[in-house]
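Weekly puzzle thread! Below is a chain. First person to post its structure in token form gets bragging rights.
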Amino acid sequence: MIRAVVWGENVHEQTNQTVRDLYPDGMHACIAEALNAADDIEATTATLQEPEHGLPQSRIDETDVLLWWGHAAHGDVSDDVVARVADAVWGGMGLILLHSAH
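Winning reply:
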């Protein structure tokens, strides 16, 4: 089983009515739902607004691949979380960057 976490800023869903209407549970949830259609993927979500942006070390340790959807709030991600994710990627965790995740 591939354990995936779909991370999303969850900003546009909160600030733009059109986006909220299209993705009432967030774009990250829509992506996770699509991934969960596969028998060998277990996808969950995390967002910027959660404590530690939903990515505490314990969660990173249990993640095979992180899908990162970023657009406008890159500067709001804490340096500690950035370092944690980078260390995990260098250690072998998969990373898929979506949209303008720079």
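Puzzle host: Confirmed. Bonus trivia for everyone else. The chain has a mean pLDDT of 95.
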